[in-house]
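Q: Could you fold this chain for me?
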Amino acid sequence: MFRTATFLVVTCVSSTLFAQTPPPGAPFDSGKHPNPIITFVEAKDFRSGSPEQAKKDAGIDLLGLSQDEGKRDSLEIADGRFVKNMQILGIRTDVTFYPVVRQKFTLTGGGNLVLSSFRFPKVVGLPENFTRIVLNEAAIEKKKKPKEMRFGGMKPEVFDIRGAGALLFQNGNETTVYWQEQGIGHTATSSLPEKKLFEIIENLL
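A: Sure. Below is the predicted structure, expressed as structure tokens.
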């Protein structure tokens, strides 16, 4: 059932700003990265795979669309990796990034949807609550050049979807929504009108 999303525009800097903690990653580059959230792999890293392989490699159960709403055109996987001494907000720590599964759908009503899913990265040596604070602060850390910032200078909006906090990014005519369910991060990207995109996300199986 579709639930109306109420927005809170990001206007302040606070470690409690994001209802959904973004994963660590490189500054967003639209020419390299799938979207502002998934910047720990690049678009070129994805390879074709099967649902069975995705579940085995990524360790996640995939979300999907009903046959009435759309058809999956492709499923791709980008390998995870281990990064030693990654700097996050002046703190150096080891991070394990898990594989990302990307599904592309053609929608029955017209338009396309890109749905990506991944296990939240493991940040070594930091308590869970402190990790959330560090990652939230790192995501909004100001730099001299916008392209050096975590989201490439983009300012996400905060709202709720599927019963969880979420972030929304607008990049040209494309909208990306990020949320988590049971430790699994999901992003949905489309050029659909926002109301229609929210409805599709709410109805994911």
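A (continued): Residues 1-16 have pLDDT under 50 and may be disordered.
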